Amino acid sequence: MNTINFICVCVEHYPMMYARKLISRLKSISNLPFAYYCLTDRPEEIQDIATPLVTNPLSKGWWNKIDLYGPNMPEGWCLYMDVDVVVIKNFDEEILWAISQNRTMACVSDAINWMGVRFNSSFMIFQSGSLHHVYDAYQKQIDQLKNRPGGDQVWAGPFMRDVLYIDDTYPNLKRNLKFHLAKRVWNELVVPSSLDASIKIVDCSGRPKPHELEKLDWVRDNWHSW
After folding, report:
1. What is the pTM assigned to this prediction?
2. In whole angstroms, what is the distance from residue 187 CA to residue 112 CA?
3. CA distance readout (Å), 144 to 38, 58, 141, 183, 188
4. Of all residues in the chain, what percent are helix, strand and coil, respectively (each to 5)?
5. Mean pLDDT over the full length of the chain
6. Domains in the chain, ordered, with CATH?
């Protein structure tokens, strides 16, 4: 099949090791023909394992994801993933299935329907150039959106048409650590020491991050060692 563009974003407070670990892990675990890209403000730190893409100097934090929908992305199908994830096992089947559905956007639902929006921008599959209307709307509003609550996904959700929610078919493709897997005991978040065998990706949005969980076997084996 044709090359699939894997793209991540690593900007500002995220150490580049997050992008490097994710890309290295995918290279080791996937059999798909990926070309690797990283949208970043530090291109010199990633260029040996991925092609750097230059961030928009007017965008901050999660708003840099809007560039994924713009004219400067590589052509073809794109897989985007946030860098604060732990990839447990191969998920080629889910990627190929989502592409075969040929929808404008495929993603995994937000863990808590944040601010009433199901769309989630932490894991997305789409064709480059198919979402220019979102990028163009952002360019017109960029000055007003910097401090908008909910960030890129809450703002962009209403613009997304024909969304395929992958978790309706593959519920354990990606599970959120804080909201799906951990338990809160009084004021303490208790993180599981082991995972269900069907889980393929653990999303560590918020806290704790993977580097704070390196003593756990499933983090050490699938994140720390990469």
Report:
1. 0.95
2. 19
3. 26, 12, 6, 37, 37
4. 35, 20, 45
5. 94
6. 4-168 (3.90.550.10)
